[in-house]
Every structure is written in structure tokens, then in C-alpha cells.
Design a protein that fits this description.
- Pfam families: Acyltransferase.
- It comes from Maribacter hydrothermalis.
- Keywords: Membrane, Transmembrane, Transmembrane helix.
- This is Phospholipid/glycerol acyltransferase domain-containing protein.
- α1 crosses α2 and α10 runs antiparallel to α13.
- Helix content is 51%, strand content 11%.
- It starts with a helix and ends with a helix.
- By secondary structure, it is an alpha/beta fold.
- Strands 1, 2, 3, 4, 5, 6, 7 and 8 form an eight-stranded mixed beta sheet that branches.
- The protein folds into three domains: 203 residues, Glycerol-3-phosphate (1)-acyltransferase (3-Layer(aba) Sandwich); 44 residues, no CATH class; 81 residues, no CATH class.
Length: 340
């Protein structure tokens, strides 16, 4: 039930969500989903609601604060992963987590882990950490015949900090970790797996290798479709074969239009709450979409219910329902078809 409620919220919040490659996900084998990481919790929710599996999630340990949150996260199959920034002494806890992951995979389940080990809005695949390969090596150590399928996932946002945004989620072909593993060359096997996953991710999402700012600026001025990373990467390759311009061309700024103003008037309380209270609290740009979605997901149903109750107090039930329904329809229509 939670899955479908959240999925409804995601599809209502985004202008467009395109999912492709679901046929590449094995249904009866252990799977490690390995996505690039740009937009904090939104990345996780997009995979959780559409991947056709019920995966476990490796999550930064600092969010597991308090017994209540631990119970909630445990219910949603989230496991803490400890990083150096959490304190060197906490890293020993990862041994137990890696063993737990091995058991999960041995049971034929799926796990989501971000191999870049951090999030960043830049349109490039960052160097992969060795955390996910440690899980693989530990799994083979405990269960030598385990056939772990590595499924790279490319998350492609048109503009992750903008509303409404568009996103394409691309599932790549599975990579058999067993076929790349050599028990006599653990370190070499780990590097081969990392290289294979990195190469796959660079084909599933936009990857700007060199002259990042200049190349990104050219892509934006050429109005490429970031939901189609294959074509974008071909365009980047064509740039590398040309002489790059030295100065950066300013990208056209969006202008406030009537429909945006209409949307803000229709949702004035929520827009005000966002701009004056929550938006200033967003710690990093990568969390912008997550905080905004959370506010809309929680507050919009309350806002609609409040409007309905006020109307019902003064007018007949049918009229209250019609007006509330029209407001909902108009908001969805604006997000999906009108707002830029």
C-alpha cells in the first residue's frame, strides 16, 4: 500500500517519469541494483516503486537515530552502512552488515546500493567506491556458488532542483559477478567488477568526462534531451571532435509566466510554506527535490481536505466535492502539461 501511495505521489509531482529496461531485471536470482546518485531520497523512491522487486536498501547510518526511526527503516528493509565521516570506530559495524547482505543475496533477494557512495548533481559518473565490491567478495566467501546479478541503473533528470522536473530511469543489462570473480585474484576481480559497472553506468546516464562546465553549457544551449543519455553522450563525443569555444555562453533564464503564477495562487499556503520555511533549511542542492517532494506529499492532501471541509461547511456536499476535484485536476494538468 505504501509503495503505491508513494508511486502516485511521485508521478503527480514529476512532469514525466520514463522507465525503461525493466525486462533486464532477473526475477529469480539475487540482484544488486547499482544506480548513479544525484537527487538524494528521490533516487531511492524511483527505484523502489518501479523495479518489480522488493529490494533492501543500504542507507547512510546517521539517519538511524532513535528507536522509532530504526523500527520504521527496518520495516522498509533499510540497512545502515557506516562511513569514515561517522567515526572510524563505527566502520567495524560494516562487517555485520556485509554478512547480512550476503545472507539476503543468498536468499535470492535484491539490494540497492549506490556505488559512487555519495550524491552529486553533476552529470557524470564519479569514481566507484569499493563498498559494493566488498559485499560481493564477502558473499562469495560465504556462498561460493552464488550467482549475483549486477544491474546498473542510470538516473537521468532534466533538472533535479527544478519543479516540475522530468526523469528517466534506465535499467541496464545484468552483469554476472560470478563470471568476473577469480578466487585466486580477489583485488583484481574487485577492480574488474568496478570497471564493468562504471562502463555500464556511463552508457545509461549522461557522462561528461572533460571540460565539465563548458560542455554542460553547450549541451544546455543546444537543448539536448537529458532523458535520452545515449544521444546526449553522442553529442558530447561530437564536441570532443570539434574545437571547444573558450567563453561560456549564458543559458537562457526562465521567465515567470501566467500559468506558474496561477499554480502559485492555487497553492498559496504550500508555496509560502516552502519558500519561507522549508527551502531555507535545505542543506544541499541535491536534497532540493527530496525536501520539496516530502512537503508536497504530506501537505497537499491536508490542504485539499481543509479546502473540502471549509466548502462543505458553507455549501452542499456535491459542490464541495466538485470544487475540490476541479482544483486537484487543474493542479495535475498544470504540472503535467503546462508548467515548464
Amino acid at each position: 500500500m505504501v509503495k503505491y501511495v508513494v508511486k502516485t505521489g511521485l508521478y503527480g509531482y514529476h512532469k514525466k517519469i520514463v522507465i525503461s529496461g525493466l525486462e533486464n531485471i532477473p526475477k529469480d536470482k539475487p540482484v544488486l541494483f547499482l544506480p548513479n546518485h544525484q537527487s538524494a531520497l528521490i533516487d531511492i523512491l524511483l527505484i523502489a516503486t518501479d523495479c518489480n522487486r522488493k529490494p533492501f536498501f543500504l542507507t547512510r547510518s546517521d539517519v538511524f537515530n532513535g528507536k522509532f526511526l530504526k523500527r520504521v527503516f527496518s520495516y522498509f528493509q533499510m540497512l545502515p552502512i557506516y562511513r569514515m565521516r561517522d567515526g572510524r570506530e563505527t566502520l567495524t559495524n560494516n562487517s555485520f552488515i556485509f554478512d547480512t547482505c550476503a545472507e539476503i543475496l543468498n536468499d535470492g533477494n535484491a539490494i540497492v546500493i549506490f556505488p559512487e557512495a555519495n550524491h552529486n548533481l553533476q552529470r557524470r559518473v564519479r569514481p566507484l567506491s569499493k563498498g559494493f565490491t566488498r559485499i560481493i567478495m564477502r558473499s562469495f566467501e560465504l556462498y561460493p556458488n552464488l550467482d549475483i546479478q549486477l544491474v546498473p541503473v542510470g538516473l537521468n533528470y532534466k533538472n533535479a532542483v527544478h519543479f516540475p522536473d522530468q526523469v528517466a530511469v534506465r535499467y541496464g543489462k545484468p552483469i554476472s559477478a560470478k563470471s568476473l570473480f577469480n578466487v585466486k585474484a580477489i583485488n583484481q576481480s574487485s577492480q574488474i567488477i568496478k570497471d564493468s559497472v562504471a562502463l555500464a553506468l556511463k552508457e545509461l546516464t549522461t557522462h561528461i568526462e572533460n571540460e565539465y562546465d563548458l560542455t554542460l553549457n553547450r549541451l544546455m544551449n543546444d537543448k539536448v534531451n537529458f532523458l535520452n543519455p545515449s544521444e546526449v553522450n553522442k553529442t558530447i563525443l561530437s564536441y570532443s571532435q570539434q574545437q571547444q569555444h573558450i567563453e561560456i555562453i549564458p543559458v537562457d533564464q526562465e521567465k515567470t509566466d501566467f500559468f506558474k503564477l496561477l499554480f502559485e495562487v492555487l497553492n498559496f499556503p504550500i508555496v509560502t510554506l516552502w519558500r519561507l520555511w522549508l527551502k531555507p533549511k535545505v542543506p544541499e542542492a541535491e536534497f532540493m527535490g527530496t525536501f520539496r517532494f516530502a512537503l508536497a506529499f504530506i501537505c497537499y492532501p491536508i490542504y485539499l481536505l481543509t479546502i473540502f471541509l471549509i466548502l462543505f461547511y458553507f455549501f452542499p456536499l456535491a459542490l464541495a466535492l466538485v470544487i475540490t476535484g476541479l482544483l486537484t485536476f487543474l493542479n495535475v494538468f498544470l504540472v503535467k502539461y503546462v508548467l515548464r
